[in-house]
Amino acid sequence: MQFLTPFFFALSALAIPIILLYMLKLRRVQTPVSSTMLWQKILREKQANTPWQKLKRNLLLFLQLLILAALVFALARPALQTKVIASGAIVVLLDASASMNATDIVPTRFEAARKSAQELIDALSGDAAMTLILAGVAPQTLAAAETDKSILKSALNNAQPSHGAADWRAALALAAGSSRNQNKPVFIILSDGGLPTENLPALPGDVRYLPIGLSQENLAISAFALRPLNGSARLFVEVRNYGNKDRAATLSLYLAEELLLARQMNLPAHGSASLSLDNLPGGASIYRAQISSADSSAPLDFLPLDDTAFAVYQPAAARRILLVSQGNLFLEQLLAALPGAQSFRALPNSSGALQLPAQPFDLYIFDGDLPAQLPKGNLLLINPTSNELFEVGAEYKDIVEMNVRDHALTRFVDWRNVHLLQARAAQLPAWMFPLIEADSHSLVFAGEQNGRRVAALAFDLRQSDLPLQIAYPILFSNLINYLSPPASFDASRALRPGESLSLFLPAEVERAVIASPSNMLYTLAPGQTIFTQTDELGYYAANLISGESSRVEYFAVNLFDADESNIAPRADLQIGTQTIAPALAAQQGLLEIWKWLAAAALILLMIEWQVFHRKKNFTAHST
Amino acid sequence: MLFDESTLRKINQLTLVASRVRAGAIKGERRSARRGSSVEFADYRNYVPGDDLRRLDWNIYARLDKPFTKLLEEEEDLAVYIVLDASASMNWREQELNKFDYARKLAAGLGAIALSSGDLLSMAVLQNGRVAAEFGASRGSAALPRFFQFLESLAPQGKTDLNAALRQYAIHPRRAGLLILISDLLVEDGFQLGLRSLLGRGNEVALVHLLAPDEVEPNLAGDLQLLDIETNAAQEVSIDGGLRNLYSARFREWIQSTQDDCRKQGIKYIHAVTDKSWDKVLLLEMRKAGLVK
Hints:
The complex is a heterodimer.
Chain A: E1 2-3, H1 15-26, E2 29-33, H2 37-49, H3 53-57, H4 59-75, E3 78-84, E4 90-95, H5 109-122, E5 130-135, E6 140-146, H6 149-158, H7 168-178, E7 186-191, E8 206-211, E9 219-229, E10 232-241, E11 247-255, E12 258-267, E13 272-280, E14 285-293, E15 308-313, E16 319-324, H8 329-337, E17 341-346, E18 363-367, E19 378-382, E20 391-397, E21 402-404, E22 422-427, E23 432-438, E24 441-449, E25 452-457, H9 471-483, E26 501-502, E27 511-515, E28 521-524, E29 530-531, E30 538-546, E31 549-557, H10 562-565, E32 573-575, E33 578-580, E34 587-592, H11 594-622
Parallel strand pairs in A: 4-5, 4-7, 7-8, 16-17, 16-18, 18-19, 19-25
Antiparallel strand pairs in A: 1-3, 3-34, 5-6, 9-10, 10-13, 11-12, 11-14, 14-15, 20-22, 21-23, 23-24, 24-25, 26-29, 27-28, 27-30, 30-31, 32-33
Helix pairs in contact in A: 1-4, 4-11, 5-6
Chain B: H1 5-12, E1 30-46, H2 58-64, E2 68-76, E3 79-85, H3 99-116, E4 120-127, E5 130-138, H4 144-152, H5 162-171, E6 178-183, H6 192-200, E7 204-211, H7 213-216, E8 222-228, E9 234-239, H8 241-264, E10 268-273, H9 278-288
Parallel strand pairs in B: 3-4, 3-6, 6-7, 7-10
Antiparallel strand pairs in B: 1-2, 4-5, 8-9
């Protein structure tokens, strides 16, 4: 036991005036009487009956001294020494990832972590500061270098777990940043250990890990998707068992909340089972997959978030593509094979002038020749000359080294076997970015300006062996899907919680209203192309409103995260080069007990009041 | 002046009564138990030879022609002793309520009655366990101013030891008579022994037990140190309702036992509280007790 503010003990000198006052009060009023004879007789009789009379008379003084003692002790802030995880400046990282919703600890892992954090706050010594960081999809600082325990606690109580994977890189960066001004901070990670195993920044201080979680039993729908196939839809669903035991589960598939199929699945430990269904209806629809316990009475697993998944099937609307070319077999074949695309071809007339059709197209592909005035729509320019968008310089040859930039548009594009005879040197405006470069020149580049997307290849396809390579259909599919998205967004792609959805709204759409699974409404203004409020799991409805008509497109947000579904608590963490084992309560902490003393003083005060009043009422009543 | 003319006039009509009257040394205005030669007519009886012819009622004889002798009451004087407790405890409460003043008025009243009836009046003042001052014996209304002067010269002081003082008073050889003790009886050792020795001398004793109202019903509360004005003894006491109730009960018991003691020994007991006017006590209470008529 120690006292944090021992100088308050000086207040115990107040006992002297209390005793003095009491003595003054008890200095009896001298009252002359004619004779004390009768009084003496009575008192002799009464004292014989009640020997504790004197003690009772001093009860008030005794209570008052006790109250003073309790208050003085409370002010002196007595503290018991306890074993705690850390003392001094503390940065607490509270894991708020989806796996923290697991119920293997009742009520949830997150509540257990919250309780541990509360204990850390309680054990915080007088002037030590604590920083609370919630490591969720978007990490946030709940309290920065705060010494006020009530603020820390209220910040902690407001924290909620997310439904997605935690961004640990950002969380650790936040932690490192917040501790910059602190002396020897201690970082405490309250987590089930679902941190990425590599590429985490090291923390500037002592790191302790407080593992939370008991069980690893969890089944999850790890994949659920629909693809168009010959005018109908093909469904694929995969269920994975992350636990140590072989399990059986019932997989139920719903189409528009009508049960489509239910099937028993046997899942070996750490194994998976999948299911494909063909010839599903071709119309736009929402599918739901649900796994439940084969034995309906028992709960399926400890993490319910990944037991349900949604998939949206949105058949691609026909995209109208205009190819302007002298004749290019490679391009024509490619466009014919592209699903959901309706291609048209235009030829320059004999005089060489281009006459474009009046009706708009979703995408214009210009193979070599450009019109005097570029159309307002999206453009794919192949071997262009200088135009209003960018300048094209002279041809160059001897292209040896080519570099593919890492970008969504170059995904799966294998450029190693592609050879070019010659290309043109293009001057990229600021809004365009290179995708494939040769030496200092851009070969393939793209960009978006004022809602118009433009991509260009600075070489003639016939001057390369690209059309013979695997990279050709992949690159062109990527580019055409970028330039003319099949829908406003790619519904077939399941989003993860917190992941932003990029929308490509056709020009006629005035605004989009997106309803979340819990019916929160978000309105996107025209020109806004990113939707970020995807924290909830389930399907979202995007209402695209244009004038008086509107149409609805859906997209789904699913967990689909092996790191989160694998709820097995990790034995240790790897941060930077450090391996962090679970921490033990090893340091001396202080548990302050002044509250109990203050409460005792209050109770004593109430007793004293009662005693005083009883005494007073007794006298007043008889007067 | 202890009291006014009208009170004195009322008082003068009263006489003190002693049921076991003692023969007086001289003829007084008091009826003797014996028929005698005073002028107060009592009865007639047939004349028998040898009767005093002066007592023959000649008028009856003339009318009835039969001799009748007038029987006259024997009248005698009474020795009246007023014994006043003048200890410090009697000097309690102010003005009208003061016990000693009250006692003096009662004594003056009783003395006036005695003197006006031709009784032999003596007075003794008891202080510190002995007789501190004496008056008399005097007879006749002419002694009244002197008696009043004597009363006014008295001052209450000292302690009380009624037993010792009364015994001392009883030792002196005196005519047996009516002895009236005025006291608050607030004495540690009691008074019974002293009264008994007076009774043993053949006196008839009356006791006027005089108390102040706050002795009957004390108006005290809280943590007090009670100072005895007589003994200067201090008594610490925390008075609450319970204690006051206990006081009242014990006080009643005390009065009751005193009364019982007196009745057993043939002592007339008059209980007087100073909030009642003194002449009422004299005219009503004492008459009720059979001390005056």
